[in-house]
Specification:
single chain; alpha/beta; six-stranded mixed beta sheet; 36% helix
């Protein structure tokens, strides 16, 4: 799941409406969402992050404890370098955050760097799994049967570059992405960006997730021709955490709230999220991170992280 974060909006809604700290009413709790940036011109578009901001405003008059929601946009390659990680840490520390919605690979990279101030509370399940498979996506009409059928084809994207070599390696291809595919750079946009490029014949293949594919299917009739294949187990689903020194009573209240969210009768209007996901929030366990750690370590040790940095910077990314 890359730019798709409706669960963040949902989590914020539950926290905002149901977490009451009477003795702390004068305090504002800060909920931050550090995201990949959208490409120029889409910051105010129909992205889930914008929905999160709007929900904050709508719920302002209903809060028992004020919660400030802020989406932080960051450069594509920021957490791929030591300098970038340090800038990221400074960015989130400046927000004096209480809660954070964070990609599991970002969390792993922060922890590898020695940043231990985030305590994961929950992740969520999708079709009963805590991970979201990563796959290649292509046109059904192209008759792709084997991975070699995609050799020399135009791969488009940027956000999912770093684990695409893991997909290739898992299916027997051990050559650099730039030699197997013809690479087409696409800045991070809304989650339909690469799908639009595919149906418009600007690219032939892109990398995404089973969750995004599920939501693509109902987003536009043009996407019905898109097929997935050559999947691997993906990263752990996104994490909602809190600052390590956050008030214990508040942590328990928020955790209880999120774990029961899918059964909360007061929020039937959000039920479609859980039905679409076929899942719900679940308590985070340390072993949940293993798939993400495996992919991050593979990208770093095989040089795929350096490849992604070079690819992004070649096309003007940061």
């Amino acid at each position: 799941m890359k730019r798709f974060i409706p669960l963040a909006a949902l989590a914020l809604s539950f926290i905002s409406l149901h977490t009451g700290f009477p003795q702390q009413m004068e305090k504002t709790y800060n909920f931050i969402l550090p995201m990949k940036p959208l490409k120029a011109g889409t910051e105010d578009g129909p992205d889930a992050s914008i929905m999160v901001k709007r929900i904050c405003g709508i719920l302002e008059n209903k809060l028992n404890a004020a919660i400030s929601c802020k989406v932080l946009f960051r450069p594509d390659s920021l957490l791929l370098t030591k300098e970038g990680i340090e800038k990221y840490i400074a960015m989130i520390e400046d927000e004096n955050y209480d809660f954070i919605y964070i990609f599991s690979d970002d969390f792993v990279r922060l922890r590898k760097h020695g940043y231990g101030k985030i305590v994961p509370l929950v992740t969520f399940t999708f079709d009963g799994k805590k991970t979201d498979d990563k796959c290649l996506f292509f046109r059904a009409t192209d008759g792709v049967k084997t991975l070699t059928d995609l050799k020399g084809k135009r791969w488009g994207g940027s956000f999912y570059y770093w684990f695409t070599p893991s997909i290739l390696a898992a299916h027997g291809v051990n050559e650099p992405m730039g030699e197997f595919f013809r690479l087409v750079y696409e800045p991070v946009g809304v989650f339909t960006s690469e799908a639009d490029m595919l149906v418009e014949n600007k690219i032939d293949v892109f990398t995404s997730t089973t969750l995004e594919h599920k939501f693509l299917q109902g987003a536009d009739d043009r996407y019905k021709d898109i097929r997935k294949g050559f999947c691997i187990e993906g990263t752990t689903n996104h994490i909602i955490g809190c600052r390590k020194d956050f008030e214990p009573h508040a942590v328990k209240s928020v955790l209880d709230l999120l774990l029961k969210a899918h059964k909360d009768k007061d929020f039937q209007e959000y039920r479609f999220f859980f039905l679409a996901l076929n899942g719900h929030f679940v308590k985070f366990k340390e072993e949940d991170l293993a798939p993400t750690v495996k992919l991050v370590d593979a990208a770093d040790s095989n040089g795929w992280t350096r490849e992604e940095i070079a690819f992004i910077r070649k096309h003007g990314g940061k």
